[in-house]
Amino acid sequence: MSELKNIFSENAHPTRIAFVGNYLPRQCGIATFTYDLYRSFRSVFPKAECMVVAVDDKIDGYDYPDEVRFNFFQDDEFQFEQAAHFLNSQQIEVVCLQHEYGIYGANCGKNVLRLMETLNMPIVTTLHTTLKEPNGEQYEILKKIVELSSRVIVMSKQGKTFLTDIYGVPVNKIEVFPHGVPDMPFVDTHFYKDSFEVADKQTLLTFGLLSPNKGIETVIRALPSIVSNFPDVVYMVVGATHPHIIRQNGEQYRNSLRILAKELGVEKNVIFYNEFVSNEKLLEFIGAADIYISPYLNEAQITSGALAYCFGCGKAIISTPYWHAQELLSDNNGLLNPFGDSNAIATNVNKLLYDPLKRNAMRKKVYLLGREMIWEKVIQQYEKTFSAAQFEKLQGNHIRYFKTSSELTLEADQLPAIKIDHLSRLTDLGVGIFQHARYNIPNYSDGYCVDDNARALIFTLTLQNLNAFPFKRIKNMVEVYASFINHAYNLKENLFHNFMSYERTWLDEVGSNDSQGRTIWALGYMIDLAPSSDLQQWALELFRSCLPKFLSIPSPRTWAYALLGIKRYTNIFQGDRRINHIQKLLEDKLMDLYRSQSSTSWNWFEQKLAYDNPRLSQALIISDRQECREAGLSSLIWLKELQTASQGYFQPIGSNGFYENTGKRAFFDQQPIEACAMTSAALSAYHATGQKEWIEEAQKALDWFLGKNDLGVSLYDPTTGGCYDGLHIDNHNKNQGAESTLCFLTALTELKNAYANYGNGIAAVRSLNLTGIPNISAIGRQAV
To answer: How far apart are CA 746 and CA 461, in angstroms?
Structure first.
């Protein structure tokens, strides 16, 4: 398990993240927070594919920016489920949810649970409110939110204490991050004052959406005492009235503040900026303030974005002792003022205005502390938490091997039925098989290739032996794939094209070395298993004409594919001395490579394990030469041990870097081609040795397709008969292309054939009277 923990922890860095919550231009503190969080994350991690899902408090929503990909109404429970399905469909890796009781409709925001219960990815929830004395429903909802979250984030230590002591949340599920703040320079307040025509004034500031709980009247009542000492003082009250207050009571609260200021004779000392200001404009207001005042009327404020902003921007702060302020302003980082005490506010303001040295010392101290709160640093903490959440999901998906070798029942009827629906869908009967699919729909724009038509020809010829489908149907498919190979033949080069566009134009003169090898391999199959003498004769002519050129191709895999084809040829024409000579030369090439590259610790043909690796071993295992068989078996045992997880299931080398000798092994992306090759090579090892363990190894490799893998995810889609294009660190590739589908179908068909002939196979192996083939457990890692 520790092996997989290391793999997942190193690779779990999600880039597809959705931020769910209120969002600008909605006038709400959480909307501003979500906006800052999203924009900052994109700035720090520009390659991330992020989006926003916004919650509306009105049916017609808002005119959102482009990053908002989906929005839904807070009082429509069904839309919460729609939002979850949308996020699931976008292959989002982590959801970052902003929570506050009042933004998700119903009683205490209960609708959010429907969203969370429908999501299939990890959720990291930022709790903007944590109540000390919740009612029953508030308590149960928060408990359920925490249960459905991989991690919860609070912005104060007090919030963490409440979660552990009141709600029983495990400590390891809680993160404490500061409220993010802009990275604002430390400048003199006069730099900004002239923007608001207060250049010659002493400035006090309170900002945020206006509502009665803000306690602004407490500051206004303190102004007469302050103005008597500092006649030029100005109290700037910045922010629109909260939309919900407007809907209920209009501007009643703001008007009451104006009346109060007039009655106290300080109306000229109070300036109301009745607007929901942009972040840029807000920073100018903060920059112009000599003192920030936060006069909330009760302690039940676990987080204050306004307080965090002014702290991080280096302001002298006077605040009432609500929970967040107690924590942030401890150690003389600011002045705490009793709730509703105007006299204390006046005393503290006068004290700071009289002593600019003390005020500036306070500013500098909090500014330096605030460097840990800037968004860039907070985002790094969020990213680590997102990675941890994804890592835990990967661990949760990771399965144990379902059965031990002794429990394995070798019966073909326990395997899935062979289904060729998707293969038929991918096959253009007038041309050949399409290379790729978008999900399970053929992708015409990628055209065709001889590689996949060769694979398809090998599979359909193999399928004939099972009599699972009408002979005529299979013969028609065989002829389609053979026709493509025939058309791919380039007489001038005596080799094959590979890629063809959908418009039926060849895109190369000569295909890759691999494509040449697979094509000659398929021609060998046709010679051995042709459904008619005409098809066999066609294959013979191409095979004999092209094969000599393979001696000059410098590719071990091409040699191996050719040897697999030659083996099929010699099943029919064993005495062909010319072909036998080419076979020996190719085997010698592989053996020379093996002898020069292998060692006790690296028992392989090359200094790198790449793709389709078992075919190199298989090409020697099928040889009539004992030294070749021993080298093939020895190398395959080494490879199968390397590609077996500690829990016993097949764990192929990943294509995202492969595995260099003395280097670091790639575990993902795992490809179907490797599982297919191991199934086939293990069956060849069984036929060479008669050892039942090799049948079990073949079964393990096939089981990788069926869910016995690092994620416990089946790559076979029984509804289509297709196979997904590989196993990523977090899920399978959703596309069902030709290579992956043919790899699964071929492996399944070969194993069914082996089980069908299981009893006869043992007798046949014994009749060969093979000598000098060591036992599978005895060869181990020993190099030949």
So the answer is: 10
**How confident is the model at residue 781, as a pLDDT?**
28
pLDDT in tens, 34-48: 999 999 999 999 999
CB 459 within 8 A of CB 438: no
Inter-CA distances, 654 with 8, 534, 590, 620, 668, Å: 13, 42, 24, 24, 4
Which of 91-100, 237-246, 371-380, 409-418 shows the lowest mean pLDDT across its residues?
A: 409-418
Between CA 228 and CA 60 the distance in angstroms is: 50
Rounded to a whole number of angstroms, the CA Rg of the chain reads 36
Three-state secondary structure call for residue 313: coil
Q: Is the pLDDT of residue 775 over 60?
A: no
Q: What is the pTM of this model?
A: 0.71
User: Nearest Cα to 740, choosing from 529, 413, 451, 525?
Assistant: 451
* d(C-alpha 142, C-alpha 146), whole Å: 6
Q: What are phi and psi of 668, to 5 degrees?
A: -135, 155
Question: What CA–CA distances, in Å, run from 224 to 26, 293, 353?
Answer: 36, 16, 15
The whole-angstrom separation of Cα 185 and Cα 189 is: 11
CA distances from 780 to 601, 634, 642 (A): 11, 7, 11
- Torsion, CA 86, CA 90, CA 91, CA 96, rounded to 10: -70
Q: Which residue has the tokens 């840029």?
A: 280
- State the alpha helices, DSSP H only, in 25-103: 29-44, 77-89
Phi/psi at 152 (nearest 5 deg)? -120, 140
Q: pLDDT higher for 364 or 390?
A: 364
Decide: 19 and 52 in contact? Cβ < 8 Å: yes
Contacts (Cβ under 8 Å, ≥6 apart) of 722: 422, 423, 437, 440, 716, 736, 740, 741
Rounded CA separation 24/31 (Å)? 5
Helical H segments across 427-532, by residue range: 450-463, 471-488, 513-529
* Residues 144, 149, 152, 158, Cα dihedral to 10°: 20
- Nearest Cα neighbor of 422 from 743, 676, 31, 769 is 743
Answer yes or no: is pLDDT of 531 > 60: yes
Sign (positive/negative) of CA torsion 247, 249, 253, 259?
positive
Tell which residue, 707, 711, 708, 692, has the closest CA to residue 754: 692
Instruction: Tell how strand 489-490 and strand 437-438 pair up.
Output: unpaired
Closest CA to 178 of 361, 28, 36, 292: 36
∠ CA 672-678-680 to the nearest 5 degrees?
105
Beta carbons of 416 and 716 less than 8 angstroms apart: yes
pLDDT category of residue 390 using cuts at 50, 70 and 90: confident
Question: What span, in angstroms and rounded, lies between the C-alpha atoms of 148 and 154?
Answer: 16
**Residue-wise DSSP of 667-728:** --SB-HHHHHHHHHHHHHHHHHH--HHHHHHHHHHHHHHTT-STT----EETTTTEE-S-B-
Distances (CA, A) of 503 to 126, 445, 448: 53, 9, 10
Kindly state the DSSP code that residue 662 receives in the 8-state scheme: T
313: CB partners within 8 A, 6+ apart: 181, 182, 184, 283, 286, 287, 367, 370
* CA gap 210, 214 in Å, rounded: 7
Please indicate whether residue 225 or residue 769 has the higher confidence score (pLDDT).
Answer: 225
Assign 3-state DSSP to the chain and report helix, strand, coil percentages, each to 5: 55, 15, 35
437 beta partners? 442
Of the candidates 723, 619, 607, the residue with the CA atom closest to the CA atom of residue 675: 723
pLDDT digit string, tens, across residues 575-609: 889 999 999 999 999 999 999 999 999 999 999 99
